[in-house]
Amino acid sequence: MFDTQHPDFTFVNAAVAGGGGSQAKQKLAADLAAQNPPDSFQAHAGAELSDYIDALQIEDVSYLYDKFDLREAFPATLIDRLTVDGKIYSVPTNVHRANVVWANPAVLEEAGIDPAQVLADIDSWIADMEKVKAAGKIPITVGMAWTQLQLLETVLMAELGADGYTGLFDGKTAWDGPEVTAALDKFATIIDLADKSYLNEDWEPALNPVLSGDAAYNVMGDWAIAAFDAADKVYGTDYLAFPVPGTEGMFDFLADSFTLPVGAPNVAGAEAWMETISSMEGQITFNTIKGSIPARSDLTADDIALFSEYQQDAMKAFAEDTIVSSIAHGAATPVAVSNAMNDAVAKFSQGASDVAGLQAEPTAAAAPMSN
Amino acid sequence: MATKSQTRRRIQWRKIGPPILLISPSVILVGTLVLGFIWAWILERPIKGEGFFRSIFLFPMAVSFIASGVVWKWLLNSGVDDNAKGLNRLFQMLGLDFLQNSWTANITFGVVAVAIPAIWQLSGYVMALFLAGFRGIPDELREAARVDGASEWQLYKNIIFPQLSAVALSAVIIIGHMAMKSFDLIMAVTDQRTYSTKVPAIDMYNFMTSGDYSNAAAVGTIMLVIVAALVVPYLIHDAKQRR
Predict the structure, then answer these.
(1) Hey, where are the domains in chain B?
(2) Contact with chain A for residue B210, Cβ under 8 A
(3) Sign (positive/negative) of CA torsion A329, A334, A335, A338?
(4) How large is the average pLDDT for residues B156-176?
(5) Minimal Cα–Cα distance from A19 to chain B, Å?
(6) Least Cα separation, residue B225 to chain A (angstroms)
(7) Quick one: A2-93+256-307 is in which CATH superfamily?
(8) In the prediction, which pLDDT does B180 show?
(9) In sequence order, what DSSP letters do the residues of A113-138 get, joined into one string?
(10) Which residue of B has its CA nearest to A336?
(11) In whole angstroms, what is the distance from residue A336 CA to residue B219 CA?
(12) Tell me, what's the pLDDT at A272?
């Protein structure tokens, strides 16, 4: 598609394999430090970019937003989250939702739970998990560190509310406050109920018991839909997806976006690439394949009909819900802070620290953010 | 109140404190040497199918740590009883339920569990070294000792072991530094965030991932010093012998 819109440039995909992009980040860090940047690279939008911004490694691309009329195309709440000191450093391709519970209705019915009921808060969710446990099934599965952190952030959202949660990142809500302690206690209860044999597996093996009918719940971003599709499962009958109880009306957001590195060898090529990925056709093509939703909010009804049922629900939610940023996916915090939180939560899940420890470590890690 | 840098320094020292630094490498080292020596000792006396067993023992060495690590990750699953998978499931099927184990998920001994795949993989190499060492001892020496009335134990203690000491030293150095810098295997069996298996090399990588190059460099330097303390005397010793 890029080839038809910009026939004078060739796109070279220099993807580096490795889960969560961890290997690619190492390669990129080395290239940037050696002042040998690529023309453009993909990173999670939001606070994760602040390290590159502070190191003067990426350019302000606000002018592209004016040139391609993107300020009107993207929702204002998204623009707010991309803007750092009045400047925007990346162009988002797609948006994912992270606060989604994937459930197996057959397992729920076996435990005497009505799959259609809507849970109001974490407490009632925990009560349901106890029922699943009593029925001899696994209540919830959780995978490696970042999936644990993602579960934790959704519990924080449910307990603190959207404003309270967002306040964690600008110092308005204290990490060491009693509300956070209460939320962490609930997280501890959930981890207690979880099957711990997946703690160093990636998200797919951890989600698998929900597909196979051994476990009731798993919290994962909406990329999980690819796993259900691959197993020919039908949305609504074989599996359910709903916001984490208590986070109704909140959209735990993460976005993939492209940047313009300082000293990029081919600026015109990078700009052309960003025009393509931010264009209406570009975003539709990309997202119908990836399973995420377009960052643009100006799609027509015909365009929306091209997406799957789940994606259409998610697009509606993205337009209406309060958007909050994900910690686990770098939208809310710089890389170093989310890494420290990953370490803290992985340590806790293994039983090497208690709730007080789980609270103290993110408090220390997040301290520089409120200054 | 501690300043930020003090807090950080304290975290540093706890993370790369001596226990975790030494447990895993020494278990790998001792386990590999013992197992490798026993295999070599068995194969040294002419037995049937020596070539076959020699290949079997050496094969794991040909597999990449990452590939074998993924398989060991499944085998060492921490689920027990109803959730048992991998080795724990095998123990159940054999009626050895009491052997079920949390393996790498154990917060104290998890790092030792990683030694199991490492020992499996490296023992064959040590076997090859010792086998070559055994073969390098002329039969005349053994015969002469036997004629002099030496017992089997005296024969080993006074004739064989002294001749194997050079081989043993190389094995210690090679396996020792491989154990000290073990990284790929741990990344494959667990991951970079798993608390129980955080060794210095993983810490270095984690600091790198966070863009904290100064701490990454500090961890790297400490590892270099420790490995150098092992390897430099060996190199000096080696150079002197050659002269």
Answers:
(1) 25-76+114-195
(2) yes
(3) negative
(4) 89
(5) 11
(6) 24
(7) Periplasmic binding protein-like II (3.40.190.10)
(8) 78
(9) --TTPPP-SHHHHHHHHHHHHHTTSE
(10) B210
(11) 17
(12) 87
CATH class of B25-76+114-195: mainly alpha
- What are the start-end ranges of the E strands in A183-280? 194-195, 215-220, 240-243, 250-259
Q: Is B82 or A202 the better-scoring residue by pLDDT?
A: A202
Find how far residue B100's CA is from the centre of its chain: 23
Give the gap in angstroms from C-alpha A330 to the nearest C-alpha of chain B: 12
Mutation for testing the A interface, residue in B203, B209, B214, B215 having most A CBs under 10 Å: B209
- Return the pLDDT at B4: 47
A to B CB pairs, distance under 8 Å: 71
Q: Which helix (H) or strand (E) holds B11?
A: helix B4-15
How does pLDDT run across B6-59, given as a tens digit for each residue? Answer: 444 444 444 444 455 677 788 899 999 999 999 999 988 877 888 898 898 889
The shortest CB-CB distance from B7 to any of A346, A352, A364 is to A364
Identify any residues that bridge with A26 across adjacent strands, giving them in sequence order.
Answer: none
- Based on its alpha-carbon atoms, the radius of gyration of chain A, rounded to whole angstroms, reads 21
Write the class of the CATH domain A97-252+328-370.
alpha beta
Predicted local distance difference test score (pLDDT) of residue B5:
46
**Which residue from A minimizes the CA distance to B80?**
A197
Q: Give CA separation, A355 vs A182, A186, A187, A339, B170, in Å.
A: 10, 10, 9, 18, 48
Fold agreement between A2-93+256-307 and A97-252+328-370: yes
Cβ contacts of B70 on chain A, cutoff 8 Å: none
Q: From the list A25, A342, A351, which residue is nearest B193 (CB)?
A: A342
Report which listed range, A240-244, A310-314, B204-208, is most confident. A240-244
Name the more confident of A1 and A134.
A134
Compare CB distances from B209 to A22, A352, A367 and report the shortest one's residue.
A22
Average pLDDT of chain A, as a whole number: 86
Residue of A nearest to B11 (CA): A361
Predicted TM-score (pTM) of the model is 0.84
